[in-house]
Amino acid sequence: MSLIIAVDGPAASGKGTIAARLAQTYGLPHLDTGLLYRAVGVKLLEAGGSLDDEAAATQVARSLDAADVSEDPRLTTGEAGEAASRVAGHPGVRAALLDLQQAFAAQAGGAVLDGRDIGTVIAPDAPAKLFVTATPRVRADRRWKQLTARGFDIGFDDMLADIQRRDERDAGRGAAPMVQAEDAVLLDTTDMGIEAAFDAARRIVEAARVKHGL
Q: In which residues is ATP bound (predicted)?
């Protein structure tokens, strides 16, 4: 069995930072699957398409590979995040990206993937599963500070409303909704700094390694 680490959770919970640190610690490749959906949304909008056009979004998704999301600053904006949440609700888009994500997870030696349906759909047999979360207000504050530091002009109340809207959409969609896998360990980072959150995540992974003899 390979060491596949599935890190799920809502926006701005810290899952991406934790996943990247875990990948570095264990020497594993890392895929932020949310960037795939951001790439679909951004490419679709740049082509003049509608985020509600499932056929067009699916066609864009079929053209992607992991290299498309490695170093693209356009994918870090709030607009890209909103676009991702909308196109992620299309079953065709999710189906088009399924093979890509599962192939990444199947690499020899293992991998770290973070997203919203890794432990439930992409890698349901992953030996290490985390569901990282925090309160909406704390997550909105993190994202607001992150974006304003980059020069984006957005009010905190608008950021909070965006976080709450995305949570509702991600949890309520019919295709692979965001839910905690039954065997995932909950990690609430509301009152944690990144070092404390990473240490807690690492201990969860270590427990999983012992359990599965990895």
A: 9-17
Tell whether residue 2 is among the known ligand binding residues: no
Q: How confident is the model at residue 70 (pLDDT cuts 50, 70, 90)?
A: low
Helix intervals (H) in 27-77: 33-46, 54-62
14: left (phi over 0), alpha (psi -120 to 50) or beta: left
Residue 189's CATH number: 3.40.50.300
* Residue 9 annotated as binding site: yes
47-73 mean pLDDT: 87
Taking residues 50-60, report their average pLDDT: 96
Residue 13 assigned to a binding site: yes
Domain coverage including residue 144:
3-212
Count of domains observed in the chain: 1
Q: Is the pLDDT of residue 169 over 80?
A: yes
> Is residue 16 a known part of a binding site?
yes
